Amino acid sequence: MVAVALSSPPPPLLRLPPHAPSLMSPLPLPRLRPLRLGRRHLSSLAAVAAAVRQDSATWTQAPLTLIAPASRDASLFHVSIDVSDAPDLAAAHTAPGQYLQLRLPAAPKPVFLAIASPPALAAARGEFEFLVKRVAGSTTDLLCGLRRGEVVELSAVMGRGFEVERISPPEAFPTVLIFATGSGISPIRSLIESGINANKRSDVRLYYGVRNLQRMAYQDRFKDWESTGVKLVPVLSRPDDRWKGEQGYVQAAFSRAKQVLNASSTGAVLCGHKQMTEDVTTVLVADGVPKDKILKNF
């Protein structure tokens, strides 16, 4: 071993004055005032916590079983979702006109969708069917671009649906007027296929308005609907020259037809554009139809 000689002596030890604190003793900490939250802050925190609990409890993952165009121009899509592993969710669909929210991981916000299938389908097969309007850049655009087997998330079923008991029994309300525009036909399909007892009523009419036949969904179901006693009145706002049926808006088509024999025994069901529902409600009430007999899917 080689010894190394120091060229200078080591520095003297540091000596602290008697009143200085020891380097090993803990430094005194500043006194902290207790945090006092006002009632508003506490309620806000409670609301956030409740929202987190609710969010984790109410969203259900479910796989897609069908994604397919529902109109000739592919502006509408059929979407089916398997909820057989969520029996409580399936059982919550009890009335036509109910709806829920659907969300995707890549989408910034969920979308509200009316359930198009009748409640019996969820009970028998554990499946929800929807009619989805594809809007570029939206959640529905992403949804319609998915494939069978991919997973989405569904909220709890919402709304009372159409309170059909308010226009029952059929013999007391022989006339039922149904109005739908665009994708608003979705919950109307659920209503018709749930059984509105159209064959026990003398006059059940469906005024269904869209821009043209290329945007009209469920054309393959029209004969089945008519076989149950529903008279279908398609109304096109921008038809081509070959169209010989009703033109314009559904409220105008109804005003031209009228033929309401007894307003007090007439019921109505509305779903679609806000302006349409407001205009039709005004016309019906003016004709004497009781306002509480005009059903909407709230």
UniProtKB/TrEMBL annotation:
Pfam families xref list: NAD_binding_1 (PF00175)
CDD domains assigned to the protein according to its UniProt record, in alphabetical order: FNR_like
Segment forming the signal sequence: none
One GO molecular-function entry: oxidoreductase activity
Domain FAD-binding FR-type: 57-164
Name of this chain's protein: Fruit protein pKIWI502
Organism (species): Phoenix dactylifera (Date palm)
